[in-house]
Design a protein that fits this description.
Order of helices and strands: EHEHEH
Number of helices: 3
Largest sheet: 3 strands, parallel
CATH class: Alpha Beta
CATH topology: TIM Barrel
Strand order of the largest sheet: 1-3-2
Number of domains: 1
Strand content: 15-25%
Distance between the termini: 44 Å
CATH superfamily: Glycoside hydrolase/deacetylase
CATH architecture: Alpha-Beta Barrel
Helix content: 25-40%
Oligomer: single chain
Structural class: alpha/beta
């Protein structure tokens, strides 16, 4: 099977309600990552997903990719710490900008 899920997130933070149409609270993101980890999902890079879609590699059935749209500070402050706690695919060289 060449299909794997790609989860798209944006605006993960404690923002005013009018900014949260497409957003998610950090605790909800944490809960979702905890579920994926507890259920043995394997987070892969978008490059790995593309190679899988094109038939160059074969990923496990429990693989999925995660994207964070926007590149805002919340991706570092709210997403990265949770992601690192709950996935085996880690980025070590990023830090949260000063508030």
């Amino acid at each position: 099977m060449k299909e794997i899920p790609i989860l798209l997130y944006q605006n993960i933070g404690d923002y005013p309600e009018d900014m949260m149409e497409d957003g998610l609270l950090p605790r909800s993101f944490e809960r979702q990552m905890r579920f994926l980890s507890a259920n043995s999902y394997k987070v892969v890079s978008l490059s790995q997903a593309v190679d899988h879609f094109n038939g160059r590699t074969k990923l496990d059935a429990n693989s999925l990719a995660i994207t964070i749209d926007g590149g805002y500070r919340d991706a570092f402050c709210n997403v990265l710490p949770v992601y690192l706690r709950h996935t085996t695919s880690m980025l070590h060289s990023l830090s949260c900008p000063a508030a």
